[in-house]
Design brief:
By secondary structure, this protein is an alpha/beta fold. Helices cover 33% and strands 23% of the residues. The chain is built from twelve helices and twelve strands. It is globular.
């Protein structure tokens, strides 16, 4: 694991600036564009080499869309995405294909992401066929090497996906993602479709591979406990925007944004005495539609600390403590950056319901 701020001098492998991903809404017989679903709305973050950035939030907040847009599986509406120093947001398909080995994805549902008509060897070997000139023998040797790396028996190479358990299918997906020696992998809720007993095995495998191969992860999940285990820094997303980004320990111990505090308050404590005394933050109302987000702060319709300013102006995403960024007017008494002590005091007052 990296230190809290990813350390000075660490190289930024992924740089996302002002990323927007809008999906058009059409109506009428001529399919006239009448609006947009703002799935990702002005998202900015960096991921350092060898780091795991956790991206969390409730279902429908735009996490998976953000991950796919970063890899150019979707063409972004606006913004910049640089991976290993190359701008990919505006690359044509021919040039983008040459960068595919650098960036890969592990999908959420291992059953849906594997072709049921292909054997394990064919699934893992497909990237090798598309992007390399390996001979048949070299390709088979590489397939066996990848199966060994993710803990799959070589004797299963000619079996089909339906013959495996969920955890084994996810290992197949991970082996396929590793085939071209990528630097950056987006893990899109890789444990969400697995039994609890299998989740830890898959996460431990991802950590082991990261240590051995020097991988960089964007780990998308709604499992806050698992993100706390694997991530170095955590970004919290709500209705298409990142509301807080901080080192893991700082975010879990001293969350600043009211939404982050509500989200973390829902995580059960294993200690019964602590659990009985813990105060839950219950949010009222429903999540607004991404096709018609509120003016100002996206969270203003559900925030227990909402002010008039929140309904008028979008809060700036600013650094409130070293490495700890949030977008909230509670820390915006002046136009200057709020100091760490002030941010801590404000966070405590929110948690105490003052």
């Amino acid at each position: 694991m990296l230190d809290a701020a990813s350390g000075p001098g660490r190289r930024k492998l992924v740089e996302v600036d002002g990323l927007k991903m809008y999906f058009p809404i059409t109506a009428g017989i001529f399919r006239t564009r009448v609006g947009d679903v703002k799935a990702v709305d002005d998202v900015t973050f960096d991921i350092y080499e060898g780091e795991t950035l956790g991206l969390v939030g409730e279902s429908g907040c735009g996490k998976s869309t953000c991950g796919r847009a970063v890899l150019r599986l979707y063409t972004p509406t606006a913004g910049s995405v640089r991976i290993d120093g190359r701008e990919i947001a505006t690359l044509d398909q021919k040039d983008l294909r040459g960068l595919r080995p650098t960036m890969q994805m592990v999908f959420q549902d291992p059953q849906a992401s594997l072709n049921p008509r292909m054997t394990v060897a064919a699934i893992i070997g497909e990237p090798l066929s598309e992007h390399t000139d390996l001979t048949r023998a070299e390709k088979l040797a590489r397939i066996y090497e990848l199966m060994d790396a993710v803990g799959l028996n070589r004797n299963f190479a000619n079996r089909y996906p339906h013959e495996f358990s969920g955890g084994q299918r996810q290992r197949i997906g991970i082996a396929r993602a590793l085939a071209l020696n990528p630097k950056f992998i987006v893990c899109d809720e890789p444990i969400a479709a697995l039994d609890v007993s299998i989740q830890a095995q898959v996460v431990n495998l991802l950590e082991e591979l990261q240590d051995r191969l020097g991988l960089t992860y964007l780990f998308i999940s709604h499992d806050l406990s698992m993100v706390r285990h694997i991530a170095d820094r955590v970004a919290v997303m709500y209705l298409g925007r990142i509301v807080e980004l901080a080192p893991r320990d700082a975010l879990y111990q001293q969350p600043l944004h009211p939404y982050t505090q509500a989200l973390l308050s829902a995580v059960p404590e294993p200690d019964p005495e602590v659990e009985t005394e813990r105060r839950r933050i219950i949010l009222t109302g429903d999540v607004p539609s991404p096709s018609n987000p509120p003016m100002g702060c996206n969270f203003c319709t559900r925030c227990p600390r909402v002010m008039d300013l929140c309904r008028r102006e979008k809060p700036a995403f600013r650094e409130l403590a070293p490495g700890h960024m949030a977008a909230c007017h509670l820390y915006n008494d002046t136009n200057e950056t709020v100091g760490p002590a002030t941010a801590t005091e404000a966070s405590q007052s929110i948690q105490q319901g003052e």
